[in-house]
Known about the structure:
Distance between the termini: 27 Å
Number of helices: 1
Amino acid sequence: MCWSCNPICGGCRPPRKRPVKCPECGMFNAVDLEHFSKPNPCTKCGFDLTDLALPEPVTCTICGEVCYNPCRKGKTEQPDGELRPCQVRVSEPL
């Protein structure tokens, strides 16, 4: 259990920010996934990072439904193997 939440971690709930390396200039940018907007320009060169920032949707192993911003809990096999409601699943595309 964490003492304070790192917005990039994504261990126990979906990450709020995503680090993205700009392919043009190489600068790392933290794209805000909670307040996602288009475009998401690089802070150094202005290259649009929207396509690179979108997480790949996966089928959550907790509830069996698609999650559009998955955390690590939903990617690992559950010990009992039973499906149950996921409280943090992102049900709509960003």
